[in-house]
Amino acid sequence: MSHNTFGHLFRVTTFGESHGPAIGCVVDGCPPGLELAEEDFAADLARRATGRSRHTSQRREDDAVEILSGVFRGRSTGTPIALLIRNTDARSRDYNELEQVFRPGHADFTYQAKYGLRDHRGGGRSSARETTMRVAAGVIARKYLSQHFDIRVRGHLSRLGEQEPAAFDWAAVESNPFFWPDAAMVPALENYMDRLRKSGDSVGAIVRVVAQGVPAGWGAPVYGKLDAELAAALIGINAAKGVEIGAGMASAADLGSRHRDPLGPDGFASNHAGGILGGISSGQDITCQVAFKPTSSLRLPVASIDHAGNPAQVVVKGRHDPCVGIRAVPVVEAMVALVLMDHWLRHRAQCGAGQTPP
Ligand code: EPS
């Protein structure tokens, strides 16, 4: 049983390995008529790509999308949209010494346990390179949602190791390499990341995402709740270790009198629920946070075992992210957009397009 397809009516299948000739995806279920060109993918893919700042992996991929099918004269035809990105800068020799040993913190051990063999080069299919195609598919969903509902899905870092933003401004987020909403803190973060990189260590991060403009009514109780499917989509991103919807874990320490979001003629007075009630969107902003562990690939030695079970010491060479959570921001946005797109089509299938909120 393999699971490389995501979604019910807006279905995304990804394929490819980090050091194979190419990665790609097939998006099936996109409504016809959506204007789509290869240039549409560039901005979001560049936001996620390696080698765009000194604070990320220095692997240099163009990440240029080729549209192979599903688009005719600039518009989606309703048939499967196949997208391809060729890998051009894999350096597989960095992994030569890792063929027979398991890198701690990576999926090497578990892929071997499951399949009995694995592509050890760059982690193969388990590499975060696969998230490129999530972002590419997400571009299609985002474009549709933006054109049809004015939905905007935006993410930012809300924690980098010990540091949290002291101020918040969406305008700052896209103007620094950390998707950080507090411009005044950026020089200190640059310093911190430079020192971290030189020390050979890595650090975790939290990505917060907000979807604005989602109409009330999307979500499929009781086993396809919007929050449940968002949580599944987000925890399935490489290196994700925790997901919160709305107030999330902090809800456990709150009182009901404070926590419930009062309703008035002008809407809700607060949004502890994160825009979802009973698994259905409420029309408020949908808010989630995703915690990413520190990158496991370090040049600092660590104990492991080889395939025969003998003790081994692992030193991971190559070009790695000191904080993999930074580049996860566009991936988180993409997964949210994919879930929303799928839920719009499912909502329309059951309730019709004309259903309006109270
Ligand atoms: C990754 C390790 C590095 C990153 C890679 C994700 O790969 P490699 O050692 O093969 O260069 O560069 O990220 C990407 C290539 C990408 O496009 O995101 C890992 O272990 O997941």
Q: Characterize the overall form.
A: globular
Given this structure, which CATH class is correct?
Answer: Alpha Beta
Which CATH architecture is right?
4-Layer Sandwich
Question: Which consecutive residue ranges, at least 5 long each, have pLDDT under 50?
Answer: none
Kindly identify the CATH topology.
Chorismate synthase, AroC fold
Global Rg: 21 Å
The arrangement of helices and strands along the chain is EEEHEEEEHHEHHEHEHEEEEEEEH
* CATH superfamily descriptor: Chorismate synthase AroC
Our count of domains comes out at: 1
Short description:
It is built from eight helices and 17 strands.
Report on the structure:
By secondary structure, this protein is an alpha+beta fold. It has one domain: Chorismate synthase, AroC fold (4-Layer Sandwich). It has helices at about 40-50, 110-115, 130-150, 170-175, 185-200, 225-235, 255-260, 325-350, and strands spanning about 5, 10-15, 20-30, 65-70, 70, 75, 80-85, 150-160, 205-210, 240-245, 265, 265-270, 275, 280, 285-290, 300-305, 310-315. A five-stranded antiparallel beta sheet has the order 1-2-3-7-4, with helices on one face. It has a four-stranded antiparallel beta sheet with strand order 8-9-15-10, with helices on one face. A hairpin with a 2-residue loop joins strand 5 and strand 6. Helix 3 (about 130-150) packs across helix 8 (about 325-350) and helix 6 runs antiparallel to helix 8 (about 325-350). It starts with a strand and ends in a 7-residue tail after the last helix. The model has no long low-confidence stretch (mean pLDDT about 95). The site of ligand EPS has 17 residues, from loops.
